[in-house]
Amino acid sequence: MVYSQLPLRCVYVISCSLFVLAAGKVPTAAHTNSWRDLFFGNKWLTPAPSSSRLRESKFLPIFTLMPYGTSSCAAPSGELGNCMASKDCLLRNGIPAGPCGGGYGVCCVFLQTCGGIIRENSTYFVNPNHPDVYDGTGSCQVTVQKMHPDICQLRLDLDMFSIAPPEPANHLCNQDQLLISGGSPTPTICGSSTGDHMYIDAGLGQSNPIVLSVITSASFPRLWRVRVSQIHCGSISRADQGCLQYFTAISGRVRSFNYNTVAGRQLSNQDYSICIRNERNFCGIQYNACPDLENNRSRAFTISGNSNNPVPTLVGGGGGANGGSPTSGCTSDWLLIGCIRSADRIPPLPGCEDRVCGGTFSAEAGMLAKTVQSSVRPFRLYFHTDGVEAPNDIDNRGFCLDYVQQPCTNGF
Ligand SMILES: *[C@@H]1O[C@H](CO)[C@@H](O)[C@H](O)[C@H]1NC(C)=O
Ligand SMILES: *[C@@H]1O[C@H](CO)[C@@H](O)[C@H](O)[C@H]1NC(C)=O
Ligand SMILES: [Ca+2]
């Protein structure tokens, strides 16, 4: 049982908050599955020495004990909230979800759905009926207002994201779409992208709000829970300019939206950069196609061609050095990684390539998947797809690559 199984509209109704407050003053004997369990977890009912202090801190004005500012906390149902005084949480239309800050505050979770306005950091944009699925049609949108004029970016974490997939012929999102307007251009996505993220440039000042819309048509069991974080212009977590996705670890995994080796379809009309922060003392980067545990022949890199058959690597854009064609290689759908070479050639091949496509991940034309390396900094990938798949490009899944940054001593 999680608190968010309560009807979402409860969040917006004052009487609902009052009910919570009033009922909170008369804790009764422990019984599970009560609304109190949903809101505060069982700890609330445990007759521990701290329980009276806990109770006071929630319902009496002992707020000076709370450290000022908000720290992040986790609700039992998995959402991240902001730790604050209970009174403040209710005043700001948040949902108190268990104690935090050593019992002096509540983990306050903010949810918004269709028609909502996001004013708090770390607010979740959820589907109507959340956490149950939503089968309705229309446009469900939330408006994000900057908490402060000095907010430069939004980070969207697609905590749960499953809307109708693109159609099978050209992989266009013509049934459902996630659209983001008011910020930097973002690709339209659909299908399933749980775990992926996006950064949106929010522009200067308070002027233009960013609107997140999920547009739906026809029947589909949709589910979404997107965390919207606001990032200060001076924050160390700010992504580099022009990066839709930004990764900050020495090793990690990058993949296209709606990637899934079983049934995912590479989305059409994509154009964006994926950036990997260059960590100190690392000068190069290597990429490998992710393991594909579902298929006998890996579909972890299937960008063009008919991926129901074996498709070689195609490379282009680098002057045709390693079997690529300067003009005809990878012109419709491609991944660009600056000056890539195969890592297993010693000495390395003199030439390098920029674009890679086809159905096998390597920096050289052929059927053999290889580790690819690059020393172009900053580390960035650029993904482009056009609006056409059929009849030549069939069942492509997109890409999933594992990356590892390479120390400066390692020949880079
Ligand atoms: C919003 O929350 C994120 C993550 O919890 C944090 O990194 C960021 O600094 C917060 N933004 C503001 C404006 O407080
Ligand atoms: C993998 O190959 C085996 C043996 O050829 C076959 O039985 C199986 O169906 C294949 N699996 C997939 C997912 O194609
Ligand atoms: Ca295409």
Automatic annotation (TrEMBL):
This is CUB domain-containing protein. The gene is Dmoj\GI12407. Residues 1-24 form the signal peptide. Disulfide bonds join C173-C190. Residues 114-250 form the CUB domain. Pfam families: CUB_animal. PANTHER family: CUB DOMAIN-CONTAINING PROTEIN, INTRAFLAGELLAR TRANSPORT PROTEIN 122 FAMILY PROTEIN-RELATED. Keywords: Disulfide bond, Signal. InterPro entries: CUB_dom (IPR000859), CUB_metazoa (IPR058698), Sperma_CUB_dom_sf (IPR035914).
